[in-house]
Design goal:
This protein is mainly alpha-helical and 267 residues long. The protein is built from 7 helices and 4 strands; from the N terminus they run αααββββαααα. A hairpin with a 6-residue loop joins strand 3 and strand 4.
Length: 267
């Protein structure tokens, strides 16, 4: 029996330190809700989690872009619904102005309303969405995923000849009314095509929006498997480590007391 080296105490102290470290780690996981409280806990898992979080953030950015593009198209269609109403009335006026029982002054009144409606359509052509023109005909490339790929959002041009010719017509004469009717019908056909394109844009962008939402849900679930702590399992581990720390402390005290028995040999 020796005094200078207490192997039992050293072993007990080493095990107690391990249990204390494990208890601290368990406390950190339970308090943070994460299995990875430091890179040393799971270096590979941390690297994967960082990449997943970055992709989720990029997807969120793309989803915001897509949502804004959907709002852009919805705003366009809201204006075009009113333009459709105006053109429909203009076509009606073009037919009414061809009535042989109407006088020149009657047609002048029709022309006044026709011109006002035409001016309204021309004014709509100048409208914008957050500073971006709604009706200049430009195709907008909307970012649709985290890699920067884009969707071509087809534009609408209310300054096209089909519209400007109709809005500039004069129905103050029967011949002018006949010509205006043809032009307005062409404008309505063009408007129908443009609204169909807007509907197609909205539908496709909606698919992209749903796709990004589903992808983010799946990425979040994958990231959760790596980083989120299982509270039930970790609570059990915490209880275990707590008991080991308490028992280790008690055994270390016993191991430190063992050299005291040497004094009896010296008495």
């Amino acid at each position: 029996m020796v005094i200078s080296t207490n192997t039992s105490a050293q072993n007990a102290a080493s095990l107690l330190m391990q249990s204390s470290n494990n208890l601290s780690q368990s406390l950190a996981r339970l308090s943070s809700g994460s299995k990875i409280t430091s890179p040393a806990d799971d270096s590979a898992g941390l690297a994967v989690s960082m990449k997943l979080n970055a992709q989720i953030a990029r997807n969120n950015g793309a989803q915001n872009n897509v949502s804004n593009a959907i709002s852009f198209n919805q705003t366009q269609d809201g204006y075009l619904q009113q333009v459709n109403t105006a053109l429909t009335r203009m076509s009606e006026l073009s037919v009414s102005a061809q009535d042989v029982t109407k006088t020149t002054s009657d047609r002048a009144l029709y022309q006044q309303e026709f011109s006002t409606l035409g001016a309204y359509v021309n004014d709509v052509a100048t409208k914008s969405f957050n500073g971006v023109s709604l009706f200049n005909g430009a195709t907008l490339n909307v970012t649709s995923d985290s890699d920067g790929n884009t969707f071509s959002n087809l534009g609408v041009n209310l300054g096209a000849a089909s519209y400007t010719t109709a809005t500039g017509d004069d129905i103050s004469s029967i011949s002018g009314a006949k010509s205006a009717l043809t032009d307005v019908k062409n404008a309505i056909d063009k408007l129908a095509s443009d609204r169909a394109n807007i509907g197609s844009n909205e539908e496709t962008l909606g698919y992209y929006n749903n796709q990004l939402s589903s992808l983010n849900n799946n990425l979040g679930a994958a990231n959760s498997q790596i980083t989120d702590v299982d509270v039930a399992t970790e609570s059990t581990n915490y209880a275990k480590q707590n008991i080991l720390v308490q028992s280790g402390t008690a055994m270390l005290a016993q191991a430190n007391a063992m050299p005291q028995t040497m004094l009896k040999l010296l008495q």
